[in-house]
Amino acid sequence: MSLDNSLEFGATLPDQVERIVGAYDAYLELISDVSLFRIIANISWNVVIQVRELYTARALLERDSANAAYDSIIESMTKSAQCHIDYADQLTTQTIDTLKAIEKYNDGAKKTEIRFFERIVADRDRTYADRLKSKQKGRASDDKHADRAAKQAEQQRTDMMNSKNSYIIATAVANRIKAKFYEEDVPNLENELQSLERRLVERFVQVLVRCQQAHMSHLDTLKSAVAHVEIKFNEVNVITDQNLFIEYNLRTFASPADWKFEPCDIHYDTEAMYVEPAPKVVLQNRLHRCRNKASELSPLMQSKRGRSYSHLFGLLLGEEATSMSSQLVTYTPDSSIGAIDELTDRYLSANHQAVAYATSNCILGCEVDVIVKAIGDDEGPRQPHDFKSSSFSIPTHCGYCKSSIWGLSKQGKTCKTCGVSVHAKCELKVPANCEQPANVSHDSMLSRITGPTSRSGVPEPESEISTSASSFIQSISSEETPSTDELLQAKVLFDFTATSEFELGVKEGDLVRIVEADDGSGWVKVVSRNGNDGLVPASYLETADHDSGNTEGGQHGSEKRVRAIYPYSAQSADELVLQVGDVLVLSPDGDRYADGWFEGSTLEGKRGIFPSAYVEVI
Description:
alpha+beta; Substrate Binding Domain Of Dnak, Chain:A, Domain 2; Wheat Germ Agglutinin (Isolectin 2), domain 1; SH3 type barrels; 4 domains; five-stranded antiparallel sheet; 15 helices; 52% helix; metal-binding; metal ion binding; DAG/PE-bd; C1-like_sf
């Protein structure tokens, strides 16, 4: 059947996914209704039983010459009923079971597409929410700047400018994602539903044609009626029906208006981004990071994106996916089950991954465009630092703000090239002028920087960028907020099955540790108890709020004491030796020092850390 005159749902029915799904459900209900032909078998069997009872009763009443004629009538009716039974069995095995299998598969395919639609809607709403958060954060920084102008004018002004820049970028990203959602994602999804519906109807028609052919062979007297029905089914034109559906569902559609920057109402403000030295360094580092991630993403997209049959199926991935799309286009509908279903599943999975890659590329491109428009050719030094997350067992000065970095919960980062250490929140504020120092004291560096292994002996995964589609985007605002790094543990709310090598399968109720927080893509990188790491949807996790309530008032106003219940020998200078019965006083927030570790002091005043499993709260 030619597809040249076919209209696409995505182009003609914008933002009408629910209506298209309703039409698809109507076809599934039709198949379910046709499957009720099983009643024929029950009726035929009842006829056979009644005829046999009549025959037995008549034979017992009398035996004369009239019985011969009566017996022939009974035998004729029995054969006719048996013929109906045979036909019903044939109808059940060849038609009903096939229709049920087709209905089950297509219902699953529809649910998959609906879940994908809900996911991209959630991604869109999350982008919108990020914009509002950036706006609120920017306004909060403005007020903070006003309150502290007398003491910290320059620092507050810099923070305000950085917050505003993040807000402008988030606004631009939200607009770009909004346009992509309505112009690409939703139309492509509707086109996929259209293709599924077309193939469903074509297969349904072929199954019914086969049913009518079997009916013709069952009874010669019904051949003419069955042939007429077959002709009618062969006259079904799915494309014409879909075009008619489009004609009766055309609506006027206008894409929502773009968001605009809303200036601060307490001082003179414009849409221009701040490009003074301090915020410019952040923008330059952010530009370098976006370009690096885009360069990692570009080869994947070039090697995996194809355009064959893109007018029918949207984005396709690689030679294998191009071959799949060719098979789908040349597919001849039949009544069998198997290859086409698996092919469709693999094609849809590839297309969903392409959408994720395109979204990541769109966000990175938007950030680069906005930053380049603001700073022009002044991209600063071209020697970025190679920062990696580090733990600090002794206090170390930050290379940017000069304050101390100390802790085992990865509160800072160290450049592997030049050895400079900074807070995680200061990373983007350091100019990209990394140089290899002439003399680096490796012994001193090792004495203050511990590796990525926790004291409990369980290796902690490094914060690396995965090559999945959702990991190419990393929000600057998330790195500048210390509380993001402190959300170390989360609970899984729903089962999640990994669909690629970059994802991690988890079960409801599992406890995982967050390695990389949600960067705006809707995914979180976590590590499980057995050491496996990967990406899971952010909406599938419930994180523990480490900053709520416990840092105020009463917790600091009273001492919390613990008693040692097991002896413990110190493994380093910053650890305390415990004896059974020893009483220790926890320092402020000492019970949240690190995973499995408390911080406190003995009654003699010696301060250090010790395993939380070796003590009990008094």
